[in-house]
Amino acid sequence: MSLVLPQRPEPDPQLRSTLVRALRDFLPPDAVLEAEEERRPYECDGLSAYRQLPMVVVLPRTVGEVRQVMRLCHSLGVPVVARGAGTGLSGGALPLADGVLLSLARFKSILDIDPVNRTARVQPGVRNLAISEAVAPHGLYYAPDPSSQIACTIGGNVAENSGGVHCLKYGLTVHNVLKIRLVTVEGEIIEVGADAPDAPGYDLLALLIGSEGMLGVVVEVTVRLLPLPERAQVVLAAFDDVEKAGTAVGEIIAAGIIPAGLEMMDGPAIQAAEDFVHAGYPTAARAILLCEVDGTNQEVSEHILQVRAVLERCGATEVRTAGDEAERLRFWQGRKSAFPAVGRISPDYYCMDGTIPRRHLPEVLRRTAELSAEYALPVANVFHAGDGNMHPLILFDANKPGELERAEALGGAILELCVEVGGTITGEHGVGIEKIGQMCVQFQPEELEQFRAVKRAFDPRELLNPGKGVPTPRRCSEYRALPDRHGHDHVHGHGEDPRP
Ligand SMILES: Cc1cc2nc3c(=O)[nH]c(=O)nc-3n(C[C@H](O)[C@H](O)[C@H](O)COP(=O)(O)OP(=O)(O)OC[C@H]3O[C@@H](n4cnc5c(N)ncnc54)[C@H](O)[C@@H]3O)c2cc1C
């Protein structure tokens, strides 16, 4: 393992038994998991190379119980890691050996749907897709749609500021959540945001969305809903060159069209998805773009013609408009299944997540291929191209000595490349433990100190998900000194930091 995991003290057996006894005073027996085999399913999230058994797992059912758990842990000085569905890819929900793993899985209720105001009030353990399913009878849906939407929870989406195919046009989680209720580290309840726009005071909602469970525990979310479009249509374009596909992405947006989704897959990803779900993809292509437009019938018809023209001008070898709804869904099923599909062709894969300004797509794809050759590990690309949100999937075999470390080093080099061209080290998967080193490249020491000050304001004793998200100054010194670090310190891209 090459990531430096948070250094934690050994769990204190005395403290553990005091904690468990106190938890059992107010939680039912099935809400406190102590036995090793019961804790085992919680030992990792989607970044499964890193595992840690939590000291104890709690599964409360009510907000009152969450508050009591937080109060108790606060009084005993025990750290707490919140967990939704555990699909996170950056180790955000990785437990601590001396901490409580607080699962929100039992908070599964949709509390209220308001079709007139187009909002829904939901508990944090509600699955992302379940919101759209519940509001569909009202002609509404919840726009942010991570590919993991069948499993991931809205609480996890809020904590990670998750995105998805539709976020190019409709925004990320932060643009689609109006209000949250939060249990603080001391067990108090605060409500942040408002049902009406423009709440006064600091915009704490924006601060909390994407805070990775480090500032509080989300126990209720009010989401904004959108009317289902009259029509959605998708165009698939094949290219014989990845860079041409990258250029086409910028050209579509430059033509004044904001697609509802604009996704790209390269050769290895196309083949894997096709073998897995038989989406009808052209397997000889070096890259495909999926471009969806939505709106009124007339808008969609006009935009489809424009999109096709741009794609052809950019050198697409084939442009196919889905013939019917079944084909449209099949095209998307291939894209949405691409991660598990790639999982079938390689013993292990490591999914990176960085964002770049769109105009650098062709260059970054080319340089990613060069890095892939340099590190001798194949990379499959499948990503939210319209947002410039890259997801290089690095294929490796953890059973071969050194391959995991090489995959991580390649991942780090790709992220630093994103920073170099003016991008960021995460588009939607968060920092967690995974990218804590690259935070030292993305930000200046003074900026990181502001992050630490925010953390101290909410959680002075560092009990909420400690060791994640924001590196300590020492961690940054160690990261910069790593002998095998590929990149350089390109803070804010191209070394062009204009500040003194
Ligand atoms: C196959 C696959 C595809 C994916 N595709 C996408 C994608 O397209 N877009 C995208 O953005 N992400 C994607 N992800 C990543 C992941 O699904 C998202 O980050 C998701 O939001 C995590 O939700 P979760 O419920 O699983 O959270 P978890 O993994 O359980 O937790 C994630 C973080 O949120 C915190 N947390 C969870 N619940 C709460 C709460 N109630 N209060 C406070 N903190 C909390 C945890 O402490 C942790 O830091 C994908 C993952 C997989 C495995």
Automatic annotation (TrEMBL):
Residues 464-500 are annotated as: Disordered. Residues 475-500 have a biased composition (Basic and acidic residues). InterPro entries: FAD-bd_oxidored_4_C, FAD-bd_PCMH, FAD-bd_PCMH-like_sf, FAD-bd_PCMH_sub2, FAD-linked_Oxase-like_C, FAD-linked_OxidoTrans_Type4, Oxid_FAD_bind_N, Vanillyl_alc_oxidase_C-sub2. Gene3D superfamilies: 3.30.465.10, 3.30.70.2740, Vanillyl-alcohol Oxidase, Chain A, domain 4. One of its GO terms (molecular function) is oxidoreductase activity. PANTHER family: GLYCOLATE OXIDASE SUBUNIT GLCD (PTHR42934). Its cofactor is FAD. This is Glycolate oxidase. Keywords: FAD, Flavoprotein, Oxidoreductase. It comes from the Bacteria. Residues 50-228 form the FAD-binding PCMH-type domain.
